[in-house]
Design goal:
The structure is a single chain. This protein is of the alpha+beta class. It has one domain: Double Stranded RNA Binding Domain (2-Layer Sandwich). About 35% of the residues lie in helices and about 15% in strands. The chain has helices at about 50-60, 80-100, 115-130; strands at about 1-5, 10, 15-20, 35-40, 70-75. The strands form 2 sheets. A 3-stranded antiparallel β-sheet has the order 3-4-5, with helices on one face. A two-stranded antiparallel ribbon has the order 1-2. It is elongated, with a radius of gyration of 27 Å.
């Protein structure tokens, strides 16, 4: 079990890892070793995530989320596959922890009387400037 928050923990069987060849420069070794890791996590069907956390996670994931609701993370910054696997898992845990934070509700505010007056005064000045731009009528 991977602990994300005190209330949320993931079962390792929910995570699917695939190895791939990393892009970028390298020597002879890079052409035959598959050290990059692709982590796939099904957000929609995960029993470990509460519904509200799953919805926020899908919003946070953005383009990393497939049409089926699977979150795909690709890690290739390290030279070893094990380190990339840990990096991808760590990034997933951080994303879920961020999604687990409930957003603060917005408090409605009203503009002050002085700010309303300033706005209206500015509008009337502007109206005066614009009305002065009209054609001059000759009688």
């Amino acid at each position: 079990m991977i602990e994300v928050t005190p209330h949320i923990s993931l079962d390792e069987s929910e995570l699917e890892f695939r190895s791939a060849r990393a892009s970028g420069p390298g020597g002879q070794h890079v052409n035959k070793s598959e050290t990059a890791i692709e982590l796939r996590f099904d957000v929609r069907r995960s029993p470990s995530l509460p519904n509200d956390v799953a919805n926020r996670l899908m919003r946070l994931a953005g383009s990393r989320l497939t049409a089926d609701g699977v979150l795909v993370l690709f890690a290739q910054s390290h030279r070893s596959g094990l380190a990339n696997r840990e990096d991808a898992t760590e990034r997933l845990v951080e994303l879920i922890a961020k999604a687990a934070e409930k957003p603060k509700p917005r408090k409605k505010t009203k503009p002050t009387k002085a700010s309303k007056e300033r706005r209206l005064e500015g509008k009337s000045k502007r109206a005066g400037v614009k009305s002065g731009r009209g054609r001059v009528a000759f009688d």
